[in-house]
Write a structure and sequence with these properties.
alpha/beta, two-stranded antiparallel ribbon, six-stranded mixed beta sheet, 43% helix
Length: 340
């Protein structure tokens, strides 16, 4: 979902992708600010914003309570939802029957009814309760904060809840884990809309990693790593510097002077996934970057990203992204071109 031309007569006129953030009473100010920070940054080569971000309430313009000692004044009512290309629902601690019974309030149901078919929907943390109560997540995979996952699953048994991942992209409906995972989700949407280079630029300007490794399990089991215990950080840095080469598990373990068994256990505790899964993720990210930003052939990209052969890279990208390398390159080059 990229920016679109306003008219065929003036191909230079581009309408930014409109993101509407639904502010509910009891919202967390930090999470409300995430979409504005991430989507407010991207610009095309001429300095034109690629997104327009609007905040609205389920009521007419006015104050919305937060979980802090202050309220915010929202200048748009629910009618803004009808003009959205993407709707984002941050977490709230005052969802009432939505949280307790899985049922929408009348004003929330009326507001959501304004959303046009085909609009992309996203929820940060417990904002997923709203999408679930509205039926948008029925039969779909979804995530939420790990501490809410069991309750979320019991209240909405038709949802396939995954409590480990940082976010889930199910096409037109996306959900994230708690708080900072909203940053990961929004960066992912920028990457999906305009490619890795744009998302990486936003991440650099926001001083956050463009892609975090692993899932929520690393935070559940080891909230704060023991500073006296050796980590796998050096091994990951070593591997990132040579993704184009064959990398064996024993070589990574050797960088930390650990046995393979100890290294694998420590790696999974810190990152949330196995070393092999992590390496594949990094190679997919490298391949995406090269496909978007270079004219290397598919075979050359496969070798440079460590997949060895085009067939191997094609299988991994198809599994991770649902598209072939050629389709990915064509999509994102066309998207960026149409935006600039």
């Amino acid at each position: 979902m990229a920016a679109v031309a306003e008219s065929s007569e003036n191909s230079e006129a581009v309408r930014p992708h409109r993101v509407v953030v639904l502010a509910l009473d009891g919202l967390l100010p930090f999470e409300l600010g995430i979409p504005h920070r991430i989507f407010g940054r991207p610009k095309d080569e001429r300095g034109r914003p690629l997104y327009e971000v609007v905040t609205c309430s389920v009521r007419p313009p006015g104050p919305v309570e937060t979980d802090a000692d202050f309220a915010i004044h929202v200048t748009h009512g629910p009618e803004a939802l009808a003009e959205a290309d993407t709707v984002i629902i941050p977490a709230s601690y005052e969802l009432g029957p939505v949280f307790e019974e899985g049922r929408l309030t009348d004003d929330l149901a009326a507001a959501l009814a304004r959303i046009r078919p085909g609009t992309r929907l996203a929820a940060i943390c417990t904002g997923g309760y709203v999408l679930a109560a509205a039926g948008y997540l029925d039969g779909r995979p979804a995530t939420t904060h790990w501490a809410e996952a069991d309750r979320f699953q019991k209240l909405f048994p038709r949802i396939e809840v995954d409590a480990d991942v940082l976010f889930i992209d199910d096409g037109d409906v996306l959900t994230s884990a708690g708080v900072a995972a909203g940053i990961d989700l929004c960066l992912h949407m920028v990457r999906r809309d305009f490619g890795t280079a744009v998302a990486n630029d936003v991440a650099r300007r926001t001083v956050v990693p463009p892609h975090r490794d692993g899932g929520q399990a690393q935070y559940i089991e080891r909230p704060v790593p023991d500073p006296q215990v050796a980590t796998t950080t050096a091994a990951r840095a070593w591997a990132l510097g040579r993704l184009h080469e064959p990398i064996q598990l024993r070589d990574m373990a050797g960088q930390e002077s650990m046995s393979v068994r100890t290294f694998t256990r420590r790696f999974r505790e810190e990152v949330g996934i196995s070393p092999g899964q992590w390496l594949t993720q990094q190679r997919v990210e490298r391949a995406r970057h090269l496909l978007e930003t270079t004219d290397l052939s598919i075979d050359q990209v496969a070798r440079a990203s460590g997949f060895g052969t085009a067939q191997s890279m094609r299988q991994h990208l198809q599994q991770a992204l649902g598209v072939t390398p050629t389709a990915y390159r064509r999509t994102f080059r066309a998207t960026v071109t149409s935006a600039v």
